[in-house]
Automatic annotation (TrEMBL):
Keywords: Transferase. CDD domains: NAT_SF. This is Acetyltransferase (GNAT) family protein. Pfam families: Acetyltransf_1. InterPro entries: Acyl_CoA_acyltransferase (IPR016181), GNAT_dom (IPR000182). SUPFAM superfamilies: Acyl-CoA N-acyltransferases (Nat) (SSF55729). One of its GO terms (molecular function) is acyltransferase activity, transferring groups other than amino-acyl groups. Residues 9-160 form the N-acetyltransferase domain.
Amino acid sequence: MNQTQTRPPLVRRAGEPDADELARMLSRLTDLSRYFRFQTAIGSPPREALLLRMLCPAGAAFVATREDTIVGHAMWAWAPGDTTAELAAIIGEEEQRRGLGIRMLSIAAADAISAGATHFLFVVSAANERSIRMVRRRWPEATVERDGTLLTFVAPARLPDQPEERPNVVDKQVGSLQRGEVTAAGELRPMDDVVPAL
C-alpha cells in the first residue's frame, strides 16, 4: 500500500463541479453496489440529471476524496413529512468496510439535524444484509415496513454513534464542515458496517 492510500480521505461539501469525478466513481462500482444504492440501473456513465440530484439535493451532499479522486458520497434530502430527512451514501469498492460510510452518514446526519430534521428515513434493498444490520445496529429504535423488495426504516434523528442527539456533537460536526474539509480518520478501520443502499 502506498503512502497516499494510508492517508484518510477528506470529507467536504459537494456541488456541481464534482459531477465528472462522481460519475467516474459510480462507473467503477460493481453492478451490485450500484443496484443496492439506486435499486435500478443507472447507466455508465450515469445520466447528468442523476448526478445533479446527488450533488444538489433538497438538503445537502458531501464527498470524500483522496487527492482529487472521489471515493465516497453521502447526502440527505427532505422526505415526505415535515421534518423527515432521507439519508443515503455510497462508497467506492476499495474504501468499503473501513468505516468511511458511517463517518459520512454521521456528517450528513449532523447537517440534517442542524437543519431541523427530527426523523431519518432509510430505504434499503431487502437483499442488502450488511446495510440492514448497520441500520438496526446504529438506529435500533427504527421502525421498518416492507414494500416488495424494499425495506423502509424510520428512526429518530440522532447521530449513529450517539444514544440521542447531543447539540454539542452536532455543532462540532457541522462547524467542522463549514470551515472546509474534515478528515475521516476517526472511523477508518476494518468493520462489517457498510453504507445504506438508499
